């Protein structure tokens, strides 16, 4: 159900690199392929320095459905990936945890998602102790994707 093309719509993270370079965010698409196991093959396409780059990752199945492990070089570089919520026809929210650091990503089947989906994402962001200060929304290929939110008092 997760297979196919996805657009990275938003991300919440305390990553200092992301904070320093948020003004340079580029439209990002991802192709997910469910493999045997069931593991996920993730192919990420994004522009960087006016060139298109493909990043390939392999998410290994973990102990429970909807949980994956992304291994890097060495033991300390493993990332736990959890499907937080998904409607495979429209959106998916993924949690990424490395040690005590956590981040969330919102993907959509289209580059624009509805307010209800953005609300779900922002609720989950707050639930893990992150804030709008560390939440970033990605542009689309056709221009900037702006998410304008009312301030709730």
UniProtKB/TrEMBL annotation:
Q: Which GO biological process entries does UniProt record here?
A: complement activation
The Lipocalin/cytosolic fatty-acid binding domain, residue ranges: 3-138
Q: In this record, what's one Pfam family?
A: Lipocalin
Please give the InterPro entries that the UniProt record associates with this protein.
C8G, Calycin, Lipocln_cytosolic_FA-bd_dom
Provide a GO CC annotation, any one: membrane attack complex
The entry lists its GO molecular-function terms as:
complement binding
Transmembrane ranges, per UniProt, are none
Q: Which domain of life is it from?
A: Eukaryota
What name does the UniProt record give this protein?
CO8G protein
Recorded source organism is Leptocoma aspasia
Organism lineage? Eukaryota, Metazoa, Chordata, Craniata, Vertebrata
Q: Which gene encodes it?
A: C8g
């Amino acid at each position: 159900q997760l297979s196919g093309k996805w657009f990275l719509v938003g991300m919440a993270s305390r990553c200092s690199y992301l904070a320093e370079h948020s003004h340079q965010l580029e439209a990002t698409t991802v192709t997910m392929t469910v493999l045997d196991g069931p593991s996920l093959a993730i192919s990420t396409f994004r522009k960087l320095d006016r060139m298109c780059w493909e990043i390939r990752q392999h998410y290994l199945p973990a102990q429970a459905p909807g949980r994956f492990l992304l291994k890097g070089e060495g033991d300390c570089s493993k990332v736990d990936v959890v499907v937080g919520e998904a409607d495979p026809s429209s959106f998916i929210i993924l949690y990424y945890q490395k040690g005590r650091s956590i981040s969330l990503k919102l993907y959509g089947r289209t580059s624009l998602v509805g307010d209800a989906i953005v609300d779900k994402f922002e609720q989950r962001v707050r639930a893990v102790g992150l804030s709008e200060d560390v939440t970033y929304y990605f542009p689309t290929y056709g221009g900037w994707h702006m998410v304008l939110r009312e301030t709730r008092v």
